[in-house]
Amino acid sequence: xxxxxxxxxxxxxxxxxxxxxxxxxxxxxxxxxxxxxxxxxxxxxxxxxxxxxxxxxxxxxxxxxxxxxxxxxxxxxxxxxxxxxxxxxxxxxxxxxxxxxxxxxxxxxxxxxxxxxxxxxxxxxxxxxxxxxxxxxxxxxxxxxxxxxxxxxxxxxxxxxxxxxxxxxxxxxxxxxxxxxxxxxxxxxxxxxxxxxxxxxxxxxxxxxxxxxxxxxxxxxxxxxxxxxxxxxxxxxxxxxxxxxxxxxxxxxxxxxxxxxxxxxxxxxxxxxxxxxxxxxxxxxxxx
Length: 288
Known about the structure:
CATH topology of the largest domain: Rossmann fold
Number of strands: 9
CATH architecture of the largest domain: 3-Layer(aba) Sandwich
Radius of gyration: 21 Å
Order of helices and strands: HEHEHEHEEHEHHEEEHHHH
Structural class: alpha/beta
Helix content: 25-40%
CATH superfamily of the largest domain: Vaccinia Virus protein VP39
Oligomer: single chain
Largest sheet: 7 strands, mixed
Strand order of the largest sheet: 4-3-2-5-6-9-7
Distance between the termini: 40 Å
């Protein structure tokens, strides 16, 4: 589906509505139509269920999602300056775009529309990890909360999502993500593609929620054991897991995990095995 011919250029929309990017909101607008179209095409079938975009700004990716076939698109925007521009886009695509003003960090996105629901977003850099953790927590409660997540992060964060054991980026966020999703890197986007250009390369990642977690475990217990293990990632597990209290030797004996191993050597399933043997905690993945 092509965009209506009457749509003005994005730079004109930005100038008319005074939408200069704000650093405090982590805004870097992607205006390249080829790249926004590529992101939209990387997502699964946009015509089914509900497509959710967080932080649309002036609507660059929003246009691409609509042009590529999104029939029920819900955008969540915190910056009130952008609402009028997005409302104009909704008029151009009658009945296909709903604009919701609000803070995605405080919203239940799974309640925004009928299933299947997928999220496609160029996430604000300053809250991208916190947003992802919120959505993964929703998936831990209900694997059907979202059918797909096609998301853009700073390349450093994206690398952590797809990292394998025994690699530098592998950490708590890797474990949580891969416990619940199949994670696949798609492509990079250079700083010059944005207005204003960020200081880092960005990467688009596809996350496909699993029908059930990779291995049995409670989220709280998995948070607790990975916090202890990666909190002292250079130390052997027999030392780093002492903060869990109790008989840590029993953990190694019951799971067959070597006490001399380090956190980065354990597979997701092994962390789950440890989590099943400890009580749930209340630590958070935020900032992992």
